[in-house]
Amino acid sequence: MEVLSEHRCFGGTVRFMRHDSRVIGLPMRFSVFLPPQVAEGRPLPALFYLAGLTCTEETFMAKAGAQRVAAELGLVLVAPDTSPRGAGVPGESDHWDFGVGAGFYLDATQPAWRTHYRMESWICDELVELVTRELPVDRSRIGIFGHSMGGHGALTLALRHPGLFRTLSAFAPISAPSACPWGIKAFSGYLGEDRAAWAAHDASELMARQSAAPYPGGILVDQGLADKFLGDQQLLPERLEQACNQVGQPLQLRRHAGYDHGYYFISTFMEEHLRFHAQGLRTA
Ligand SMILES: N[C@@H](CCC(=O)N[C@@H](CSC=O)C(=O)NCC(=O)O)C(=O)O
């Protein structure tokens, strides 16, 4: 693991990191925030944040305003990049919502993409292993959250890997990707036309298949009502709400008048998400 840069922040440290990923077959970047409590020498709870389309490992650290409260709560923050970079797939940078910056947190199965576009295995296998080995992180107390495409990632990775992430929340997640233009484009490209394969990466469909509530302590989702992408039917939070109701999964889906899709919205509610996770990870 190589430290690319390091910045003091609220008594802790923001680090930008790169490592040679075995799973992706390329160097991958991520950022971490280590709170001041690392000096106490005990493993700390950690939160993985998955960012949205066009973002990098820097977006969350620079824009979400999470470090002050994470420093107070003693939470390590980990923010992975949103796709492989330099895979060399023809046309991979031609679209802002597919390819580079748009890995959709799944392992692609289609020939052009499947060698390098393996974001699910990178995060759930390699990165969790790496940060728990190299940083003072308690593997039994990891939570996950994310925004938009990253909200889809947080929800699906949590549901697909029971027990890995103890707490779960999202900002304006793509809640039913099989039924929205972004998801249909990404799933067709990465997974092909088999709709059963899509369902296994669709948060609402995964939730509807649960036999019991996977997060009995609840899931927190915030959604702005002035979000352009909500109006464009890209997010479909009502489908997640319906699936949660169906299986008895407690969901706090908070709809906020006037807020859009961007980081002004995210930073407004960031503190409440951090406290929600810290509370859940304390009792984990
Ligand atoms: N270029 C796009 C807008 C891209 C965009 O809004 N990305 C969002 C995530 S959208 C879903 O995953 C984002 O987080 N952007 C980073 C930011 O700093 O706001 C367009 O032209 O509409």
From TrEMBL:
<feature type="active site" description="Charge relay system">
    <location>
        <position position="261"/>
    </location>
</feature>
<keyword id="KW-0378">Hydrolase</keyword>
<protein>
    <recommendedName>
        <fullName>S-formylglutathione hydrolase</fullName>
        <ecNumber>3.1.2.12</ecNumber>
    </recommendedName>
</protein>
<dbReference type="GO" id="GO:0018738">
    <property type="term" value="F:S-formylglutathione hydrolase activity"/>
</dbReference>
<comment type="function">
    <text>Serine hydrolase involved in the detoxification of formaldehyde.</text>
</comment>
<dbReference type="Pfam" id="PF00756">
    <property type="entry name" value="Esterase"/>
</dbReference>
<dbReference type="GO" id="GO:0052689">
    <property type="term" value="F:carboxylic ester hydrolase activity"/>
</dbReference>
<dbReference type="InterPro" id="IPR029058">
    <property type="entry name" value="AB_hydrolase_fold"/>
</dbReference>
<feature type="active site" description="Charge relay system">
    <location>
        <position position="148"/>
    </location>
</feature>
<dbReference type="GO" id="GO:0005829">
    <property type="term" value="C:cytosol"/>
</dbReference>
<keyword id="KW-0719">Serine esterase</keyword>
<comment type="similarity">
    <text>Belongs to the esterase D family.</text>
</comment>
<feature type="active site" description="Charge relay system">
    <location>
        <position position="227"/>
    </location>
</feature>
<dbReference type="GO" id="GO:0046294">
    <property type="term" value="P:formaldehyde catabolic process"/>
</dbReference>
<dbReference type="InterPro" id="IPR014186">
    <property type="entry name" value="S-formylglutathione_hydrol"/>
</dbReference>
<dbReference type="InterPro" id="IPR000801">
    <property type="entry name" value="Esterase-like"/>
</dbReference>
